[in-house]
Amino acid sequence: MTAGRRSLAISRALLWPALIVAILLTQIPLVATLYYSFQEWNLLRPGQRGFVGFDNYAKVLSNGSFLSSLGNTVLVTGSAVVGATLLGLLFAVLLDRKFVGQSVARTLMITPFLVMPAAAALIWKWSILDFTYGMANWGLSLVGLPPVAWNTELPAATVIMVLIWQYTPFAMLILLAGLQSQPREVLEAAGVDGAGPFRTFTWITLPHLRQYVEITVLLATILLLQVFDPVAIMTNGTGGSKTLSYLLYERAFIGLEVGEAAAYGVMTVIVTIIVAMVALRTLFKVFSEEGLMNR
Amino acid sequence: MTLRTRMRRATVPAVLAAGALVVAGCSGAGGGGGTSDGGDGPVELTLATVNNPQMKDMEELKGEFEEAHPDITVNFVQMEENDLRDAVTKDIATGGGQYDIVTIGSYEVPIWAQNEWLTDLTEPLTSDAEYDVDDLFAPVKDVVSVDDSLYAVPFYGESSMLMYNKEILDEAGITLSDHPTWDEVADAAREVNSDDVTGICLRGKPGWGELFAPLTTVVQTFGGTWFDADWNAHVDDPEFNEAVQFYVDLVKDAGPADPVSTGFTECLNTMTQGKAAMWVDATVAAGMLEDPEASEVAGKMGYAHAPVKETEESGWLWSWNLAVPETTQNKDAAIEFVKWATSKEYHQLVGEELGWTRVPPGARQSTYEIPEYVEAAESFAPITQDIMLSVNPTQPGLYEQSWTGIQYVTIPEFQDLGNQVSQDLSDVFAGRSELGPVLERGQQLAQEAGDAQ
């Protein structure tokens, strides 16, 4: 055995303890969930607990809530991610120039992301979207539009709005980092060659930002898939705002159906893995060979 | 790079994302609190309770109990209602034994008693003549009893009633009797409704304990029911449909503008600011409406029995109760504390130490004979007492029931059922769907729940 291979073996051995801990911590809950998903177990009916095979999965697939929740999740997460990324790009471009009060503006722009999700949802519910006293309806009245009963009429849009507000700073930060890593000489060269600001942006800046946008979309999607607080606090899962995580919460904590909730959880994992694999392999350059070579 | 490693690279974030989702779904309430040691010697009791003002008063006064019982200390764990329900259910269902005393709602008591999770308190309470168990309001005692055994003691209780702003109704020349009908109330609401004033505040927030608390009482007084005595569901019956249609129409014509956001707290706000003419909700709200520091309408309110149609009464019945889980190691000490906190002396103590309006209402009849209390709560205490004595939890509607309870059905599946149907009803409030199909689906869900009984 050569010295190189031996040191490789030692490095690997040193890695094992951490890896084992990581595997245990992440996989034990999954295994427990799998186990519960084959049980009939309503917390309030302790006498009727038992193994039921795939019954819970049959229930999940036969009643419509799983598919409709999946659709809601895609819609809510998708719109919020796209909205936050576009707005984040806009603000990043605006902040990527010198002006008086730049650092103050940057700090203020980041604040929504620092507010706890539950607190943010409460602020939106009471001071912005309240029918009588909310700022949103006050704003509408200024331009002569009738007030909107946000949570009743547009529950899904309400949740999406809050999420966009909260995740725009997140997207902005990553994209701003991307903008600032642009080599200045390339931009100057473009200017010398006669490209205007618009062409410089579309032909040089945007391709440069591609990987940053991908990272933003990926991380925001992961974070937003778990969205729960605004749904629970503002809309209670009504009218297209019932996302998968809220559905899981409902099955487990309102229905108290541990087995069924676990089956929903497992189905969610399966669907997410399939979707994520397809998305990562087809859409994202960051994880492809080419993307790695470019680093 | 080979295809395999590429696959693996792609799978890692995917699994992470999926795992995060599962964790998000599973996290929720966390319990808390100390443990208690069994055996002799000093005893430490852990009491899990909902964070209502009356419970905070109890915590403030627990020193008196500890002074009288030097070997017992009581630790309070306060939680929001839903968190409490999750934490306590999980603790008891899995035999955790973390809590010695729990406050539970009247909906849970019969279900938990049938699971043999609660200590039978009949003997310790009835054997003590001084405690005077017959002084507890009979309807409230009924809802916490199973086969004539008491499994919990009411700490405070409430029914529902019509509360109205006399100024607004007088201006419109409307007078209401003490026993109004829903038709009268609806007409009055539509008449006084304007851009500035909501005709009648009614809950529309989804949830079995939010929307379906008032709505079930409406269904019952219209002659409908969730289940008959043989557990056949009756959700798509014409009476159920008529009642819900009536409620939805009333909310659309003269109710809160954003019904899906509106629950007890939201209505209380609107009402205390004088922005609503009428409100049908919990009797405990009266105490808050009459508080001059928090309410602009104190002294301007009138109270009446909950509106009816086919029945004599349609108030609901709810109580927060103290119960002793079977899993506790300190049963005797726990029962001792439960007795103290629901005794006549405790009511005196609250009145003298904290003020008479803060005495827990709706638990003991003798409270309504304390002169200081009657004086402090004169505008609403007599009618509250009257309503608490006249509601009938064994048969609130026209149907015979095989459960005891008014605005809920004491089966484990009801929370889920009420929650799902009320979510679908938000679509009806918003005009996104018709009532018919919603109730048809409700009927299906209800029949599934009925079949499980």
Automatic annotation (TrEMBL), chain A:
The chain crosses the membrane at residues 14-38, 74-95, 107-128, 154-177, 209-228, 261-284. The keyword Transmembrane applies. Keywords: Cell membrane, Membrane, Transmembrane, Transmembrane helix, Transport. Its main location: membrane. It is found in: Cell membrane. Pfam families: BPD_transp_1. The keyword Methyltransferase does not apply. Residues 70-279 form the ABC transmembrane type-1 domain. It is a multi-pass membrane protein. Belongs to the binding-protein-dependent transport system permease family. This is Sugar ABC transporter permease. It comes from Myceligenerans salitolerans.
Automatic annotation (TrEMBL), chain B:
Pfam families: SBP_bac_1. It comes from the Bacteria. PROSITE patterns: PROKAR_LIPOPROTEIN. The keyword RNA-binding does not apply. Keywords: Signal. Coiled coil: none annotated. The keyword Signal applies. Residues 1-29 form the signal peptide. This is Sugar ABC transporter substrate-binding protein. It comes from Myceligenerans salitolerans.
